[in-house]
Amino acid sequence: MSVEPAKPTDLGDGDHLEVLGYQDSFNRSMSLWANFALGFTYLSPLVGVYSLFAVALSIGGPPSIWWIVIVGAGQLLVSLVFGEVVSQYPIHGGIYPWARRLWGRRYAWMAAWVYIWAMIVTITAVAGYGSGFVASLIGITSTPESTLAITLGLLVIALIFNFTGTKTLARVAQIGLAAELIGVIGVGLYLLIFQRKQEFSVFFDTMNVQGDGSYATAFIGSAIAGLFLFYGFEACGDVAEEVENPGRRIPKAMILTILVGGVSALFSFGGYVLAAPDLASIVSGEDADPIPGILEATLGTVGAKIFLVVAVLAFISCVLSLQAAASRLLYSFARDGMIPGHRWLAKVSPNTKVPRNALIVACTVPAIITVFIYVNPAITLPVTAFAVLGIYIAFQMVVLGALRQRLRGWKPAGTFSLGAAGIVVNVLALAYGLFAIWLLATPGSSGDVVADYAVWIGLGVVLVSGLAYLFIARPDRKSDAPAGDAIEVAERLTARRAETASMAKVD
Questions:
Q1: Which of 49, 292, 393, 417 is 20 to 30 A (C-alpha) from 141?
Q2: CA 249 from centroid of its chain's CA atoms
Q3: How many CB atoms lie within 10 A of CB 2?
């Protein structure tokens, strides 16, 4: 992709950061393409589709594919709101600094606390699921012991890559992007064109998954096909201080992540459905892991092995991107003195210009959770079920904060702006987000209290611990970093741009 030059009236990256109260501490070596690759590999349609394909079909049948379109459209609205926010606030950490500058310290504390735990759990889950692909690739039986060892290995490999600096992160993310595109679009197109065994009308056939009940209930239950897929685009903003001209590039990267991720997921999900030789057994739940069989039947043994290589690359890149995003959030949180051990966490390596201590935490805590899961597999459900709901709640805290500021008169002053349409998009994004949270938080009906309320259990633990620390330690009182200043910052940025333009005319 071509590098777009800054306009004469744009502020330099360092000047923009200075207006926000910070100084440049990182190497701005991440391009638009690399920033997009980071978000895309975090979103990872290959991981999402593979994980949810059988579950979605068994709940809602082939029409569950339309949730990819519905959720993709909703998250696109959210990404547009985020684009305006990050364009004004291109600061490391994404959700935390955005919530802080849009609302306040305590509000930002809770948004970041929920979000960081959701990210850490997501790192754990992705590394754990990737261990199965690695085991299949190297030809070993997947056991609790091998899963533990491979999961820890994936976490350490990602940490080593992240330690070497932003350029390595960008390269590996781009390799992961290529692997994702081959694994989802390439394979999906091949299945659609050469291995189709079902008619396209199947996407409107419920295949009687509703039984004697209403299909509407079954369709709503299959929303996980999209809800568990479309997040990760916000990671583009987590590394804002390592991107040149972030006010323009990051909004573009987030939008690209949603659009390309959505198309990729549709090709992949649709391809598997149309190429399934026995779709009925998948919909009935008899075949709980159908994708290996579909690939073996359509690609052959060698082709399936090549796909495993591509999938492993995608998983490594996804863990790498997740660690990078989580470490920048921790760094941003610590830089403002808002978290225990903030002086240690806020240190940046003088050589590689990455927050190494924060990276260590982003690897170590998922490793500890992995060991707990190995000792007690029963905690897997409540731990992982919380992750997606936590991320959606944190997202909507930013969307709500942006709407609050708009109603108070805020006009986003970044180089990416929706203009008069901004408030309409903001309202629609909030409405969609509340709907998504309702879908995710609705208890199950299996009769198993722990399983049915797993999401609430995980969220409750995180909220109670976060509120307890907030009101006992009062980190908000120890931090003097700016907060709730969206309108004032917009005015300062506008004034600084006018001053820069005036000086340019004189020269």
A1: 49
A2: 18
A3: 6
Give the closest residue to 86 by CA, choosing from 497, 335, 403, 412. Answer: 412
Sign of dihedral through CA atoms 64, 299, 284, 125? Answer: negative
Contact of 463 with 114, CB cutoff 8 Å: yes
Cβ–Cβ < 8 Å for 228, 48: yes
pLDDT tens digits along 182-217: 888 888 888 888 888 899 999 999 998 888 888 988
Q: Return all residues near 477 (Cβ < 8 A) that are at least 6 apart.
A: none
Q: Where are the beta strands (DSSP E) in 253-327?
A: none
Which residue is it, tokens 């349609």?
45
- Return the residue matching tokens 């030809």: 139
Q: What values do phi and psi take at 243, rounded to 5?
A: -115, 130
Per-residue pLDDT of 288-329, as tens digits, reads: 878 888 888 888 888 888 888 888 888 888 898 889 889 988
- C-alpha–C-alpha distance, residues 28 and 31, integer Å: 8
How far is 62 from 209, CA to CA, in rounded Å?
10
Question: CA 476 to CA 487: how far, in whole Å?
Answer: 21
373: which residues sit within 8 A by CB, 6+ positions away?
124, 128, 379, 380, 383
Give this prediction's pTM.
Answer: 0.88
Here the tokens at position 463 are: 């909220």
Q: Is 383 helix (H, G, I), strand (E, B) or coil?
A: helix
Q: Residue 19 corresponds to which amino acid? A: V
Query: φ and ψ at 30, to 5 degrees?
Result: -95, 120
Q: Is 116:326 a contact under the CB 8 Å cutoff?
A: yes
> Do the Cβ atoms of 11 and 490 come closer than 8 Å?
no
- Rounded to whole angstroms, how far apart are CA atoms 247 and 11? 10
